[in-house]
Amino acid sequence: MNSQPTSTARHDSDVCIVGNGAIAKTTALGFAQAGHRVTLLIPPSAPQPPAPQLGAEQPWDVRVYAVNHTAHTLLSSLKVWGALDAARVAPVESMVINGDGKQPGDLAFDAFGAHVGSLAWIVEDRNLNQALDAALKFAPNVNIVSGRATGLAANADGATVTLDDGAVIASALIVGADGGQSWVRGHCDIGLDYRSYHQRAVVANFSCEKPHHGVAYQWFTGHEGIVALLPLPGDRVSLVWSAPDALAETLMRETLSELAVRLAVLSEDKLGALRPLQPECVKDLPLALIRPHAITAPRVALVGDAAHVVHPLAGHGMNLGFADVAALLDTIAAREGHRSIGDERVLARYARARKEDVLLMQLATDGLARLFGTDLEPVRVVRNLGLNLLDKLPMLKRRLMAQAMGK
Fold it and tell me: Which of 36, 154, 173, 174 has a C-alpha 20 to 30 A away from that of 25?
């Protein structure tokens, strides 16, 4: 892997990937291992990964992902899963969903019922990116360019990305893996539907007095939003609270100790006393639904949040991105020998391959966010009855579990 400063130069490759997150790095690694020449364009302000502190435990990252089986399979095939710090990965053995109101509903899933070892795995963003960075170091046909893109052009012969210093990246395919505010998507004039949920995801980590036994808990609280406590290794949990904007502001003003008291009351002492992990850290992220009108353009494919942003209540935003990468790699590998990797028909096959899966997740997460966002008592009664009924229908539960796990 060669890391070069930007210059008035020309970088030729088969594929140019724009982005600096886990999805962009996974895409770069996937194309490189498939034998393609790759240019990974990262922003000039991108922070360098910190060097691990020898003899000292790294603080727990507040940004975590519930990695499903599709993502696990992809990362394993790229030799990334084995490079993770396994001591910092927590398997999810079961999931318990709790309704609210006078007659709360409950729904539980477990790995035994799904005939798998684990429903998912909780992985820190830092752990994942460090493993990807390590894997990219051994990819000889990956060129990392740091620069700010200012222009994008495509024609029958290929595509170019122009940087602000005059440098040019020429390739057969451009992959936009640059997040919900995608520069690539914007420069392709792809329209989108945007709707704010008027919520913010408040994230923090805690130690718990009682063992969590690998259970992921989720509470639908109506006016206070959706609260999830995800298992971390040891007696630790990660909080993802999708809170209405006003409540999120209150939570961010409070100390983490005050937030821990709120969570202990909400969880009805299932995990005992909660204590903030040191150093105390809490972050919040705005939540919105973003649906681009297309995920391809001439010589361009979008993956990850550039292609879709969904509510995090199911924890599958990142998994959709990994599924995008897997589908793009598979589609291009299966193309006819005379077709370029940026061929219009090849990219159309990728778009078709992702349409149903993405649409189902968008409808499911948006529908659940709307359903559980109301405090009308009749609606609360009906949705809680629905949770209880679904909990007693094993065949339907298994189908839902299979969809969630990406199997």
Answer: 154
Predicted confidence band at 386 (pLDDT cuts at 50, 70, 90)? very low
Q: Which of 370, 386, 251, 226 is nearest to 216 (CA)?
A: 226
Evaluate whether 245 touches 73 at the Cβ level (below 8 Å). no
Q: Are residues 230 and 364 in the same domain?
A: no
Q: How many helices (H) and strands (E) does the chain have?
A: 11, 22
Residues 6 or more apart in contact with residue 307 via CB below 8 angstroms = 176, 292, 295, 320, 321, 324, 354, 358
Is residue 386 located within the same domain as residue 278? yes
Residue 15: count other Cβ atoms within 10 Å of its Cβ.
26
Peptide bond connecting 140 to the previous residue in cis, omega within 30 degrees of 0: no
Tell me the C-alpha distance between 364 and 310, whole Å: 10
Hey, which bits of 209-280 come out as E strands? 215-220, 226-232, 236-244, 274-276
Integer CA distances (angstroms), 276 to 58, 203, 232, 258, in order: 15, 12, 13, 10
Residues near 24 by beta carbon (within 8 Å), at least 6 away in sequence:
17, 18, 40, 42, 175, 177, 178, 304
pLDDT tens figures, 293-329? 999 999 999 999 999 999 887 678 899 999 999 999 9
Angle, nearest 10°, between helix axes 22-33 and 125-136? 30
Q: Domain residues for 209?
A: 85-124+195-287+373-405
CB-CB neighbours of 94 under 10 Å: 19
Q: Is beta strand 90-92 parallel, antiparallel or unpaired with respect to 120-124?
A: antiparallel
H helices within 314-343, ranges in order? 317-333
Query: Tens digit of pLDDT for each residue in 210-232?
Result: 999 999 998 888 788 889 999 99
Span 106-129, pLDDT tens digits: 667 777 666 678 989 999 999 999
CATH classification of the domain holding 119: 3.30.9.10
Is the distance from CB of 278 to CB of 59 less than 8 angstroms?
yes
Q: Is the pTM of this model over 0.85?
A: yes
Beta strand segments in 185-225, E: 192-208, 215-220
Percent helix / strand / coil, the chain, rounded to 5: 35, 30, 35
